[in-house]
Amino acid sequence: MPEISDDPIVAKEQSHLDESRAALKAMREDALTLRAQGGNAVSTENLLAALRTRAKALMDDPSVPLFFGRLDYGDVADAGEFRDEHYYIGRRHVHDATGEPMVIDWRAPVSTAFYRATPKAPMGLDRRRRFGFAHGAITGYEDEPLAGPAAAAAGPAGTSRILTEEIERPRSGPMRDIVSTIQPEQDEIVRADMSVSVCVQGAPGTGKTAVGLHRVAFLLYAHRDRLRRGGSLVIGPNKEFLKYIEQVLPALGEIEVGQTTVDDLVARVKVTAQDPPESGVVKGDARMAQVLHNAIWSRLRRAQDALPDGIMVVRGSRRWRVPASEIDELIEATKERDVRYGAGRAMLAPRIAHAVLYRMEAAGETTDDRTQNAVARTSEVRKAVDLLWPAIDPVKVVFELYSDPELLARAAEGVLSDAEQAAVLWTATRPKAPRTPGTAKWSSADAVVIDEAHDQLDRLPSLAHVVLDEAQDLSAMQYRAVGRRCSTGSVTVLGDIAQGTTPWATPSWDETLKHLGKTDAVVEELTLGFRVPRQIIEFAARLLPAAAPGLRPPTSVRQQGGSLEIDAVADAADLVATLVTAVELALAAHEGSIGLIAADARIAEAAAALAAAGFEHTVLGSEPAAPPLEGATATEAELVESLLAGTPGPRLVLVPATLAKGLEYDQVLVLEPAEIVAAEPRGLRRLYVVLTRAVSRLHILHSEPLPEQLTAV
C-alpha cells in the first residue's frame, strides 16, 4: 500500500478529500444562513428547527473520511450512463458550488457496484479503489482491476488489506458504521425493497445490527418522503444497547429515526415490579390476547336484558321507540364488522339514531345528517350506549382480570389451564394484592398486556418501517406489540436464536414472524463472522450443542493469533487481585475499548477493586442520562459547535452479563464464567453471548471450574 509521503496519487486524492470537506462546510453554512429568512416568530422558530436538523445531517467528523472508495468506469456498454466516469463513494452526498457531485452517497444506485462488482461480473467497472485512512487523512490506497487484461493478470480476488485493517481497527465508544466494509451478502439485505420484510438470523460478529441500521438508512434515502410521513423506529433490548448504536445513523446523515426499547414502546404504566418466571411466561404467551378479547367483549349487554322496553327518543312533540330486539340486531351487525371495541362503540349511537330517522321519515318528517347527529347526542341514546356497550379503560380491564379469579376463569375458559390462570393473578405475583390500578405494582409483562388491551379497544397507528434488534429474547405478546406498530409497513428483524436467554425466548423465526404478522417475510442467515476472531468464535461455539442444539455453528474469516487466553486462579480469594493485574496489562499493552464482563452480582466487587487501584472506568447501566441538546436559542456558530462536540468516556467498561448482548469491545475480560452460567436458567446461552463480545482479544479468569462444554476437546 503506497505511503502518503512518496506517492503523488495519494497526495492528489488527499487534495480531493480536502476540497470535499470544504464543500461540505459550505453546504452546512448555506443551511444555517436560511435562518434570516423567517417572516415572523413562528416561522423563524420552525425554520430554526429545520436548519438544526439540516446542520446535524451535515456534520463533518474530521476523524472520519468523507469517502472510502472510488469507482472507475470504462468505455464499455455495461457502464451505461456512467461510461468513462469516476465516482468517489462516501457516507453522504457532497457537491460543489455549482452542484457538481464530489462524493456520491453509498446508497445511490451507482454505489452498488462498489459492494458487488467482481472480475466475473464487473458491472461496467474498470477498477475499484479503496482508501486507507488515519485520523481522517488518506494514508494509502489499493486498486482492484475488474476488467480487461489487468483483471485477468491479477487472478482470483484476494483479501483486501485495507478492508481487513478497517474491520480490525481498534475502537472505543459507540458502534461505528460499516459503509466501507459492507459485504455482498450484507448489501443485498441492506438494499432490499421497502415493501419486503426481512428477518436476519446472524451469528455473533456477522454484522446483523449494522445491517439493520444501514437498511433503514438506505430506505430513508430511497423512500424519504414515505418514511418521513409514516415514520421509522429502531427497537433495541435496553437503553445501554441504544447508547451503543445511537451514533451510527447520525454518522450517515440520518437523524430522523426514533430509537426505543420494547418497555418504553408500551409504557402506559410505570413498571416497578418483576414477575416470577412462571408468571412472565404466561403473560407473554399469545393466548393472553384471546383472554383479553374475551374479557373485553364480554362487557357487552343484550338490550332485551338491560333495556327490555327498548329506547324512547323524544323529538319535539313526537316520541320514537326502537325496540330492544332491533337494538340487539344493530349490536350484532356492528360486531360482525370485526371492528375494534372502541370503534364499534362509536358506531352504535349513529346506528340507533338511523333507526329513529327511519321511523321519522316513514311518518312523513324531513330529516338530514344534522337530525341524525342530534338524535345520536340525545341523553336517551347516550345512556343506552353506555349501558349496552360501556367504555373500557385498558389498565382497569387488566387489573380486574388479575384481581378476580371468576372473571379470569370466564375469559380464559378453554384458553389457559387452571395453573396458568393462577399464575397471572395478583395473589401469585405480588406479596399483597393492590386495591386499585393506581396502587398496583406493574411488571414489564403487564405493560405489554395493557398495550394489547389498548389496541383491542382502539387500533394503534402503524409506522412505515421498524427495525427490531436482539429479537430472539422477546415474548409472543411483545412481538404482537411491535407488529401492530408496523401493521401497514415493513420490518427488519435481527437476532440469533442461540443468544436467546429469556424463559420465553423464541424457538424459531417462523414463530416470531407469525406473532409479528409478517409470515411473508424473507429469512436470511448470516453465518460468516468478520468481527470476532476464529479462535474466539470456535471456543464459544463449543457451548452450542448444549445451549442451542440444531443451530449451525458460526465461522469467522479472521485468524488472529494470541486472541484467546484462559487463566485459572487456584485460590478464589486471589481472583479479584488477579483481575486488577489483568486490567493493568490490558490497558498498557493493547489499544481500543475494554469490556470487563461478569455476573451481575459480581460487578460491584470488581468496580470497588478497580476504583481502589485507581483505574478510571464506567459501569454499564449506571451512567446518568445525557442532557438534551440545548440549541433553540443558540447562535449558528454555537449550534455547529454543540453538534460536533463529544467527550469520549473511559476505555474500561464494566458490563453486567445481562446487559452484554449486542455490544462489542476490542478486548473482553470475562470473570468467573461458572457464576454467569449459574445465575439464570439459560446460563449457557448467556455465557455464549458474553464470550462472543470480543473483536480482538478474549481473556478469561476463573477459580471455579469452567463449564464442561468448554473444556471438552
Automatic annotation (TrEMBL):
Extract the InterPro entries matched here.
DNA_helicase_UvrD/REP, P-loop_NTPase
Which stretches are transmembrane?
none
Q: What is this protein called?
A: AAA family ATPase
